[in-house]
Specification:
288 residues, alpha+beta
């Protein structure tokens, strides 16, 4: 974090340098754009095929086939969730939050895509509906559904507090993936990755640039809905911080369940779905 009191004097050109216009690192105009209105029309024909409830301070996994939709819903009270995505066929292909952030920004909403890790790097899911899109950015720079936080985990907790806490989102997702995949716990943990913080309201402080959280605006019935671009294994943790208004690894915060439902379009519509191709880079890395 930046020091409030610099130790070095500013050069005479400081104001000029600070006033240089920024440049977008990754212009996305060349990316194929999803047909959101078309996907929303398809969604109206879909019927629910599966549903799971994620208990408070725990996680669960569910399979979503390509060409289907899945919805994460707040069902009882304000609650945030940490979302992991894997290819259902290969756990090595997983959600890449950093590159998604670089392409779409710090917070995601309708029309943004969740991209997979190298070397596959293709769309895994597209956000097609967001009942919290009205929130935008508040006066503190906060917004919902971020890809800047990692996930609450026992290792950082141990460093900061000296205690072991086992129901943070990293541990919750590790247990859920191990149970679903039948992998040993330590093998499953290696596949757990940085998350989309569903419903969480976050930003960076203006003075020190520190990551902050505040009470989520999510209400019972609010949802975030996705279109599965590939066959997915979806993992979701109901964060032990509840609405994350005060802390995020806690047995005292008021926590609530979350729900994931899967919606399948009619057969003729699903057959038209085109699976995104693996990234076309030849992986030579300039050798040969």
């Amino acid at each position: 974090m930046k020091r409030n009191q610099p130790q070095h004097a500013a050069p005479s050109s400081a104001d000029r340098m600070r006033n240089i216009e920024p440049v977008i690192c990754y212009p996305v105009e060349g990316l194929p754009q999803p047909d959101i209105s078309g996907l929303q029309e398809i969604r109206r024909t879909a019927t629910q095929s599966d549903q799971i409830t994620v208990p408070p301070r725990d996680a669960a996994c569910i399979v979503v086939p390509a060409g289907a939709f899945f919805r994460i819903t707040s069902v009882e009270g304000p609650q945030v969730g940490d979302l992991n995505l894997w290819s259902a066929d290969d756990l090595n292909e997983r959600f890449y939050s950093g590159k998604t952030r670089a392409l779409h920004g710090t917070h995601l909403s309708t029309g943004d895509r969740m991209w997979s890790s190298f070397p596959m790097m293709r769309p895994m899911a597209t956000i097609v509906d967001d009942s919290l899109d009205w929130y935008g950015f508040d006066q503190f720079g906060g917004s919902v559904h971020d890809v800047i936080g990692t996930r609450c985990d026992p290792y950082t907790g141990r460093l900061l507090s000296g205690d072991d806490y086992h129901h943070c989102c990293h541990s919750n997702l590790t247990r859920a993936l191990a149970a679903h995949s039948k992998l040993p716990l330590h093998e499953a943990e290696a596949y757990v990755h940085d998350v989309l913080n569903v419903f969480m309201c976050t930003g960076f402080t203006r003075d020190t640039g520190q990551y902050f959280m505040k009470a989520s605006p999510v209400r019972p019935g609010d949802y975030l809905e996705f279109y599965a671009e590939i066959d997915l294994l979806v993992g979701l943790s109901a964060c032990p911080g509840g609405d994350c208004s005060s802390e995020h690894s806690s047995d005292t915060a008021d926590c609530h369940p979350l729900e994931i439902s899967v919606w399948i379009p009619d057969g003729s519509t699903r057959t038209k779905h085109e699976m995104p191709q693996l990234n076309a880079y030849d992986r030579s890395h300039g050798v040969g």
